[in-house]
Amino acid sequence: MSWTNYHSHCHYCDGKYAPEEYVKSSLEKGLVAYGFSSHAPVPFDCVWTMKPESAHAYVAEIRELQQAYQRDIELYCGLEVDYIPGVTGPKSLPVLDLGLDYTIGSVHFVDAFPDGKRWEIDGSHQVFLDGLQQIFRGDIRQAVSRYFELTRQMIEQECPDVIGHIDKIKIQDEEGALFSQQAGWYRQELEQTLRLIADVGAIIEVNTRGIYKKKTSQTYPGKWALEKMKALGIPITINSDAHHPEEIILQFEDTAVLLASVGYKQVSVLLNGKWQQVNFDQTGLLHTVTS
Ligand SMILES: [Zn+2]
Ligand SMILES: [Zn+2]
Q1: CATH topology of domain 4-285
Q2: From ligand 2's centre to the CA of 1, what distance in Å?
Q3: What is the distance in A from the centroid of ligand 1 to the CA of 82?
Q4: Which candidate, 60, 146, 126, 131, places its Cα nearest to that of 98?
Q5: What one-character DSSP code corresponds to residue 88?
Q6: Which residues surround ligand 1, an ion (CB under 5 A)?
Q7: What's the gap in Å between 14 CA and the centre of ligand 2?
Q8: What sequence ranges are listed for the domain PHP (predicted)?
Q9: I need a labelling partner for 162 at 20 to 30 A (CA). Which of 83, 208, 216, 269 fits?
């Protein structure tokens, strides 16, 4: 069994352990490549992002591990970078300065409360409801549309290598009480975003965290989007968004079955320093390129 995972957190941000613990766990689980993608620093108080002053130490530590484990596993140094217009993004200078191997671009913040505090769309449901009222006067369609609009703006202006959990906003609506993921307007927003990604050629991650944390019944993105993505020829990579060493490949087998059911035969993996397409089945990658 051989998998890869490029979306992961460690104690530099809101992960639980030192980077090496995730490497050891990856070796036990037979991964061929593992990428670190701590939450990039943001220039305001945030409990789950890396502190700006830790960024260089983070990169240095991952580079050391890369050397120390080079015979056993390919390790990569990335960041999950928030896109906040005019504030930070995958192509902002402090990120480029770090010389990373790849970036994951994600939208966790949508606009701000009247007092300036940024609205986290995947935080507590109460915070979500508060922002919905105070920023969007309760108009869920406007709020969700703004989320997808920001995602498209990121892709147009600061496209990362990998688009993170593209429909994560659904985390607030698993019961369908706020909006319907089947609604025409919702699907139109999502599809418009997918079409843009197909045009620029970025990779969309299929992120399993919502399932194993029991926050969602489907991966980010879900089956409807995956079918569209397949039709649009968008490359995918399977990621766990692991915060704990035991989460590194959770739900990968079921996700591989789902992906095969919508027609995907290959996943994108970062191996030998470049993103490439490799065949997979529910047991993992079928043959990994060695040159
Ligand atoms: Zn994220
Ligand atoms: Zn993450």
Answers
A1: TIM Barrel (3.20.20)
A2: 24
A3: 8
A4: 60
A5: B
A6: 106
A7: 9
A8: 6-208
A9: 216
